[in-house]
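Section 3.1 - Work completed
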Amino acid sequence: MLIAILNQSTVLKNADVATMTEGIATQIQSDVAPIWGRAPAAVTFYTDPTAVPAGAYGIALVDTIQDQPQGVLGYHTEAQVAQVWGVVAAQPELDNGWKVLTGDWSVSSTLSHEVLETFIDPNCNLWANDGQGSVYSFEVCDPVEAPTYPVNGVSVSNFVTPAWFDPLAPVGSQFDKQNLLKAGFSILPGGYMTYESANGKVQQQWGAAYPGWRKTMKGGPEARGQQRLLQLQASYHVLRGAERATQMMARATGWAPSVLCPAQRVSPLPGRARAGSPIGGRCRVLPRPRPRPRRRRPGG
């Protein structure tokens, strides 16, 4: 897996973007990949979007949430119809007093957040069941977005471990890289999470110290959280339709089949539904959204 980084911002120097890219590449290699049991992704800075190899996932740094990455969408729309691009806005962090390379809400920590979530769930369609009827989005940085930690002098995002998504995690499990959480399906004061409760209500929970200026950046149609909410709404209607059809069959014949669908994808988490088995264990896969930029916001 290759994650390409592009600097299309007027407020960031290429040298700084290269520095944060190197730090995040080390984070993937030394921290994220070993904890998640995956082969490391390559994270590479490109100054020319046309030099990005086919098959790469990409993240463009821009100034504001309204900016479009230049030379990216057209190139990848033609070559890779289903490819995913993320967009990280740098100006909001700077406008709110934060720095480029250091600090909990720095540009580097925001980019790290985006890279890590692209690495773990590039298609933004995995969910975990907590064993109590609620399902949680597979966003590894959201619950522990702050505080950050340093890698090679660059602030990078904290992230949760596979145990965070496991309702049967053993006592004493580590739930995040910095070992700050004491339980899965929980958040730090500087984090948030998106989930569907057992009664079917879609919710976003914010930590007590989560900045208001970052909350406002998560409501756009391309925001990863908004894509999650749309997926849950679509899934609810599909499942309700299947339930109604099953009820009609039961009334007509006295017999009703299961409405559970086979899993579309296999998760690295132990105990998750395997391909061909019913969804409804620890995780479920929702339909992939139509091709579009991954998000236009400063936070993950």
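Second construct:
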Amino acid sequence: MLPQLGLVDGDVGRHSTSSWHQFIPFLIAAGISVPVNVGSRILLSAVISYEFALAISHLLGMIVAFILNRAFVFPPSGQRLHEQLSRFTVVNALSLTQTCTLSSGLVRLGFPLIGFDFYPELIAHVVALAFSSVTSFWGHSRYSFARAG
């Protein structure tokens, strides 16, 4: 049996049955949305700043992730579509902050400090998305797709 993640499913504060069985489909959905996110960031970085490209690409990836998570990862919650989307947006705003901070920190400070120059923007973006996927799962399972009521 796989371990429980100790997340909340439904009422905030109540331990859930969210498990690796839900985390794995979440990672698959995230994995499908990542090419949209990273690909659009690469294209946008050619014409706008890295940080602005991160923000726009995050929005595009978020749309794909919302559709996949709602359809395949989280069970029906009883919330209306606009409520779930609003909550999903709040969690993703926090995820965007985390992704931009870590990614920009690596590109502007961390990588130059250690002399790392092998596709620094791409590597930083993917690393930041990987870190934010853990906190995003926590937020989406607790808040975005929590049971209504």
